[in-house]
Specification:
alpha/beta, Arc Repressor Mutant, subunit A, four-stranded antiparallel β-sheet, globular
Length: 229
């Protein structure tokens, strides 16, 4: 699989490249957001590791342009001082983030986790040849297609899997930690706002009024659940 690593610090790109190449991935480097978007036009990319602060075109604006055309997984890299940008990145469409300095082995684990979900979303899972329906929402797990009122909804792999969890378990309440562990496949030790931001993005795509949702609701202090319609 091809991974685009974009950071204006060439030493960071080289370090990430070393670890990911050991796992058998093909690494394509870029050093600013504009270069990354240009590469996307000519190369088949399966995941992007994207720094936030870069010259010419920063990671947030690059991600915004990317999400207009592609739903491939994106892992943001951010400095601790960039918390606001980090949350903005999640809102724009990032699937995960890591704060510098980071453990390269943890980054490798997150890359594998995102690619597993992306591969599952793009392929055909013979165990999932059925359709889930709740009100106006329909999820064809064979085709990996979600529609609302018959209109296709474009979801990232992470959003799809969160919605699938709710659609398969209507009425069941999941804490943020449970959602994180099931979707990211990791212990929920540092979820921050990741889950809530993804829930907000899903609501914006499936709800008539995201601020007063009909489907995915919060039970304060407990977690989230999908109401059966």
């Amino acid at each position: 699989m091809n991974i685009l690593v974009c950071d204006d610090d060439k030493e960071i790109v080289e370090a990430i490249t070393i670890y990911l190449k050991q796992e058998g991935y093909t690494i394509i480097p870029a050093y600013n957001g504009r270069q990354a978007l240009d590469i996307m036009k000519s190369e088949e990319i399966h995941l992007i590791i994207l720094d936030i602060m870069m010259p010419e075109l920063d990671g947030i604006h690059a991600l915004y342009e990317l999400r207009e055309k592609s739903s491939i997984p994106v892992i943001l890299l951010s400095a601790k001082s960039e918390d606001t940008d980090k949350i903005l990145g999640l809102n724009v469409g990032a699937d995960d983030y890591m704060t510098k300095p980071f453990n390269p082995l943890e980054l490798v684990a997150r890359v594998k986790s995102q690619l597993r979900r992306y591969t599952s979303l793009g392929g055909i899972d013979k165990e999932d040849e059925d359709v889930l329906v709740n009100g106006a929402i329909e999820m064809d797990k064979d085709k990996k297609l979600v529609t609302v009122e018959g209109e296709p909804v474009k979801l990232t792999p992470t959003e799809y899997n969160i919605l699938k969890l709710f659609m398969e378990n209507p009425g069941k309440v999941f804490s943020s930690g449970e959602i994180y562990e099931r979707i990211w496949g990791e212990d929920a030790y540092a979820t921050d706002n990741i889950v809530s931001v993804h829930i907000r993005r899903i609501r914006e795509k499936i709800e008539i009024n995201p601020k007063n949702p009909d489907y995915i609701k919060v039970m304060w202090g407990v977690g989230y659940h999908m109401e059966k319609k």
